[in-house]
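Lay summary. Proteins are chains of building blocks that fold into shapes, and those shapes determine what they do. In this project we predict the shape from the chain. Here is one chain we studied, written as its sequence of building blocks.
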Amino acid sequence: MQKINLRYGRAHLVAKDIEECRNSLEGLIIAPYDPAKARGIGYNLSLSEMIYSITRKRLVPICREDQETFFYLHPNETVLALSHEHLIVDDSIAGSFHSRVRMAAQGIGSISTTLDPGWKGMLMFSINNPTKNKIKVILSKNSDGRVSTNAMITLVVWKTDNYDTNRGGVKRQLPLQLQLDNPPMRIDIWTELTVKRLRFFHDRYYQEFRRLVDALSSFENTPSLEVKWTDDLSRLLTDLRIVIEASKKEVELRKVLLEIKGYRNIPEVMKQRVESLIEVLNKNNILGYCRSKKYIKAIDLCEREIEYQLLCDQVSQVHKIIKENVPMSWHKTKLANIKHYFVINISLFWGTIVFVLILVAGRIIKYDGFWPRLLIAIAPLFLSIVMSYFKNKDGE
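And here is the predicted shape, written in a compact code that computers can read:
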């Protein structure tokens, strides 16, 4: 990371500094991290699929197609959105969020806010459409099986100016003592939005939003099967510390190293960390090198990488919860629309079928006027479908 110019008080972090933060896992941690989004003096952040319309008081329907995922931002509409990334910053980092020119050129506006030192969690953004036209907002694109999220807002960060001079005249940076009480994901604001219940005809929209907020509020992270390797690797790194610090024989040290080297089904970046650790410990005089305590930095970096992989897994689980609870919008064919509305009205559909069978069997009516009453019996289903169709069409 770049050195602080004490004359000017603070210095912005450029792309290479943000990349260094990812490599060292210190200062600014972004999960998941995409090196292509580190540009100039900032990092471009994306939106998740959790998007709530303040104007229409409902979750915005998301359209998922083969090539892209998107939603529509209506004229004069303002929405709140949860960020795709999870950020962790230490006490020496502060920042601000800015609109991207490409987004502004489409007519999309965003409200700037700040990133406080010590922040941990996903972020809440507000974007709006001040134009008279409906705007298609792309969240992610799928190219050759690789999904990339669309950059929406630029994060600019800098080192804070908080220094003290010791007796030797050397300036050192001190941690900021800030009283911050904003919870991760700003779950407090999401919860406040669920307090006021909507009128009867919009109850379904309220229930959708309430379920999602409740699911995120009660979320407890349990590592998925994809990161189960972290338990064993963490144990081996602990064993490695014990072997080295106990000054045991070199053969025992190499035995633990061999077990660590045997891990193959791990992320590429984790493989590089392990290879660097082994390279560090495989110096000409391995025990002499270890006794110098220089190995600690290499092991610490491996352990921080494990924590980072667990954090990425946690973020992935949050996105899975969001995806399962947000409404979908269908755009491919009329047949797909009809199928969708039959699915969301499945209970009413089967209820109608049962009722029709009863009518046909003559268990309810045994008098003239059968066909008119049959039409009355099936009317609720199709009326519900028609109403849902136009409501969702209006929300697309």
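What the prediction tells us: The longest helix spans residues 295-325.
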